Amino acid sequence: MEVTVLLVDAFTETVGKGNRAGVVLEAEKLDAAQMQAIAAHVGASETAFLLPPPAADTVQGGVPFDFGGMFMPDAADMLVRFFTPTMEVPVCGHATIATHFALAGEKGIREANHAMETGAGRMPVLIGTDELGNPEVTMTLGEPQLGRELDAVDKAAIAAALGIPVGMIRSDLPTQYVSTGSQAIIMPLRDAEALHGMRPDFAALGALAPRLGCAMLYVFAEAGDDVPYRIDGRMFCPAEGIDEDPVTGTANGPAGVYLAAHGMLPDEDTVTFTARQGYAMGKEGFVEVTVYRFSGSVVAVQIAGKAVRAGKLRLRVSPEGTITPLP
To answer: Which residues form the active site (predicted)?
Structure first.
């Protein structure tokens, strides 16, 4: 079977920046083993596979709100599966942006509301355009949930794995589990110098994941007033085969919930801010995060970004999952 994989750099408009994803727009004839083999061959942090929607009686609940001009249809109109080079994951922000950017380009879509079924539930995705007519994609993440705060022992273990003194972790804010469909540990640092100066031990970070019960660690610092972004972040996920992810929608979304919960955003019903990630890797990208509150509580989070086509692969995939590149 021949398969075309589109390569898309998400959360950037510059090829080679942001976060690259593989996208297979016609994946209905592939099984999970073949998808995993393709993702391993592509080598991007995630590869997305677009499939027909599941039967209506298998559709999981998602965000039941209408925010930012988006709505949740009664049933999903697509199923998207996401694979790292080593495993399937429930949902992926940058690969969602990449998939819908690819749909816009390949199908000539300028504006559309989609209901995307994922391993983390059904999520609305909006394809729109900017003032120049370029595609922009907005994704509503899953239900915002604040989890427990980490204790001093766990914070010290993470600091050691990151190669920083524990004193570089802010003591006036918690290190905390936050979920918007997928869970991340959110850790605030004192400044961007500490953030970009980290030299993580990825093996040690990966070994901590079972103990912590969470694979994704998002470490951030507040930015100054002289830059167009509010926070600067780095995300580590070696337990899922991603030592460091350049730009992560499903980490910046939970970061938005965290900022709102701890008084780090304006006290308004709707707040939009920009997060930067990937600078330390030379893959700087920007995520637009919108937080919606109702009666003081965060009820929904959206991430948005642009993307750029970076290339295409043609592969022959055997029934057993053997990959042969084609010219």
So the answer is: 46
